[in-house]
Input
Amino acid sequence: MALDEIKIGGMGASRRRVEDNRFIRGKGNYVDDIVLPGMLHMEILRSPMAHARIKSIDVSAAWEVPGVRLVLTGEMMAARNLAWMPTLSYDTQAVLATDKVRFQGQEVAAVIADDPYIAKDACQKIVVEYEALPVIVNPFQAMEASSELIRDDKENQPTNKIFDWEIGDKEGTDKAFAAADHVSKLELHYPRSHPSPMETCGSIADFNRATGKLTVYMTSQAPHIVRAAVAMVAELPEHMIRIVSPDLGGGFGNKVPIYPGYVISILASILTERPVKWIEDKTGNLISTGFGRDVYLKGELALRKDGKILGVRMNTISDHGAFYADAQPSKFKIGLMHSTFAAYDIPVAHLTSTGYYTNKAPGGVAYRCSFRVTEAMFFQERMVQAAADDLGIDQAEIRRMNFVKDDDFPHRTAFGFLTDSGQYEKCLNIGLEAIGYSTFKAEQEEARKRGRLLGIGISTMTEPLGAGNSKEYDILGIKMFDSAELRVHMSGKAILRTGAMNQGQGHQTTWAQIVAHELGIPADDVTVEEGDTDTAPFGMGTYASRSTPVAGAAVAMVSRKIRAKARKIAAHLLEVSEEDIEWELGRFYVRSNHERGVTIQDCAMAAYSNLPDGMEPGLENNAYYDPPNLTWPFACYIAKVEIDPETGVWDVLQFVAVDDCGVRINPMVVEGQIMGGLTEAYAMSSMQYQTYDEEGNCIGSNYMDYLLPTAWETPGFELYEVVTPCPHHPIGAKGIGECATVGGPAAFVNAVMDALKHTGVRNIDMPMMPNRVYEALQTGKDISGMPPVRSGD
Amino acid sequence: MYPSRFGYEAPKSIEEAIGYLTAGAGEAKILAGGQSLVPMLKLRFAAPEMLVDINSIPGLDYINIGADGSIRIGALVRHEDIERSEELKTAQPTLAAAAHLVADPIVRTRGTFVGSVCHADPQGDWAAAMTALGGHIVVQGPKGKREIAMKDFVLGPFQNALAFNEIAIEAVIPAPQGTPVGSYLKLERRVGDFATASVAVALNIQGGNVVRAGIALAGVGGRTIDATEAASVLVGKPLSEDSILAAAEAVAAAAEPRTDHRGSSDYKRQIVKTFVSRILTGIANSEQKVA
Ligand SMILES: Cc1cc2nc3c(=O)[nH]c(=O)nc-3n(C[C@H](O)[C@H](O)[C@H](O)COP(=O)(O)OP(=O)(O)OC[C@H]3O[C@@H](n4cnc5c(N)ncnc54)[C@H](O)[C@@H]3O)c2cc1C
Output
């Protein structure tokens, strides 16, 4: 008589996404859909220059435009101690520039007016006099002794260097390299890209002088962190701040940081005593908000003749833009870069990193990944491929040989992470079988004879998801746990709230499935709410694939608390002692008589109508979950490509993805995440990047220049599944939202490199645009660095 | 993305539209499909005082194919209409091949063929196709109609030969001598991207010989490149491996590409050469050449 779990939309059910109904019908509720009485509109004037001293700002003509209510400059912000704000990496960032502009697109002034057209017109009337300064567009310029100092606002900042950092065992690594048969080296650049969610950033600040309460509707992946930060910056009491994130049109890490626009709109509302709406335009979003990557690598592998990796040495140089604004929760300066090679059994490793300021937009740096994990895994898989080619070993074999074995978990990595579980070789085997690896070599040879260039590229990796355990991870000192609150109504319907923040992951759908799994309440009977700090319990937000590992665990834990109370009520209703009660999905019954039972809905009603003596009424609870470890999913991605040697155009002939993210709550949602991530992986490898010309002009400031692939270019993906339950997660789930973006790019690049192997080319940096592939083919030389930018037009 | 303030008129006749343009004295602009003009307004790259929307003028959405094979395309024919026209597929293979490569399906439902030619974007596909076809544009102004040959119509990047108060009312492709064959190839970084390089080939074949060879290029110069002179090596004989190679090399030499983020000038020339050769080889190998 237990319920059919799939029928009630429990674990494993590919239940249709609850969210989609309203999105497809145009009934979503995004920040820009919200209209408040008396609302004003704000527009930001941005710097056209990448590096310049501001000599003067004349706003008088802007004030004269009819309908203008307020014009704000850095000077006015400074008078209120708000010209600068702290970043999540303990640096400062200009809200409105006072002294200099440090990147193209930096916020210089703001106009608040009756409608957005007026605000835009008035912005154009502001006259700013700039004195151009030398522009630095990459870390190699930034490190030159003679380079212009970007952060002359800071004390103790004599150069453009932000940090030096290292981790691992230098001495041991040196020894391993000295003893190696072969050292394989590779230099790579992971280009800058932008998460570019369809919805840009925006806010409506509404300060009510009468109540003293500040309400901010905003595009945030982490509303609770914003409340804490606003309390600190604006010195408002926490209970007088309400942050509401309504529907978000994507985030991908772009909506974790706190941006000047939010702060300016808040001050504008305080000054005008009217709600102030700010909606960034697409260009504003692309040129000023959190980018991802922009890291250079020097990588070396110490190898035994047979391909066994004896040691890893990596040096990274990262470009952080004008302010060090990484929105990362770890104490590690280069994020989780040292999770690199976690899938392989490496005896010893050493990583050094240096970060620099440049005259480019500041970044949150994580784009659909845990901080720096995308780079870590890309570098890893490119280095493994190069090592295989250098030694003339099969690319699948070198991975197989170095994998952590199934019975070696938990495994301590060379850099100190503890990976939890996995079946790496099994995943690889499934992938190889699906792509037809055993016959590929012959196929490749034969094709080459006819002038066709085929290649297969493999990428296998595990990554740390679900920041984090509270010992090592925090934001502004706040530990990285999450919570859930569940209230079961008397009819057995329920409302669940968490501190996570959906932005496309489908929380409304999947959280209800966890409740269904734990309590047998049909998923359709559970409302899920997030995003309003006045009603949702505390949580650190959604990014780094942490929602299911952390908030999802809290959902399971709170459901179990509810079940524990319901069991007591059931014993009362069935007139037996609690020890004689058994549970099956949706129902308690008497052990000796399966027929005699009560449903969870019966217990809910009794919680309001027929309680045992002395029991507190109601059926609700909350749970905080502090994860003991990160979760470690595994992925094996294999691409098969063909290059047109006359044009350099490459096509993906087949793509196979084998993902092991532990137990899948909603397989369809998981597959959607993988498909989306692989699309972004393909994008990175082929076209999606941002670059800057020598003057610091951003190339990639609109969708004609910043290319996102469409359904036309994007290849089809074949998905396969392996399930290794996470040993330390209450429902055995691991993160999955980012695996494909992280692991995917190397599969495409490795495939193109495999197709070019006979030419001696070892590397083409992303994006592998046809002209770059063609050039490599013609010259037999590696193509490194960012593509050349527009000259002259 | 908020444009500057502008006035708006939606005239019901060409004469009325010309009246608004004349009154606007250069500050009024025609709005056709809006797929180039509206983005420029939103970015505030353009701020005309007045938009004269020609979409309400009846009778401009025709594709007429004459008995002699000449083709007239009215000012309100959308890219999509060309793409979906069954008649054009056989009557005009160059246009048919280009149609699905212009922009993306959404843009193609609104953007107009004639508007695209008027826009004179050096990367525009239709100006290249029209140039290869040796077509002309019929324009109407306060003093009546005149014809402007394609080679005289595009003056430079985003510059056409229209006076401020003239409207392009139709594009005309002359009757072919013999059988019209041809194709269009475009290298784009992604659907909806402008051409890194594209090649329009329009040949007339009679008695097995090429009697007219029109080739034009987009994306490889400051304006649409008319490579018809370079293509003249093809004329007066059947297509052969030798003539194809000679034409491909001559056309590539006629390109004026610049190095930019889409590729080096050498690379773009290589694409032109490859595409010319692929199109001509395709024609040589197919039934297209029969007549
Ligand atoms: C995302 C995107 C991708 C695109 N990709 C491509 C591409 O790959 N290839 C390509 O060729 N084009 C591309 N375009 C441009 C598109 O083809 C436009 O439709 C076309 O260039 C202009 O036609 P329109 O009817 O939209 O003209 P409008 O935008 O209305 O007008 C363009 C200009 O022409 C003038 N004009 C229009 N009609 C007339 C007329 N009858 N007489 C006189 N002047 C006139 C207008 O005043 C204006 O100056 C793209 C556009 C977009 C938005």
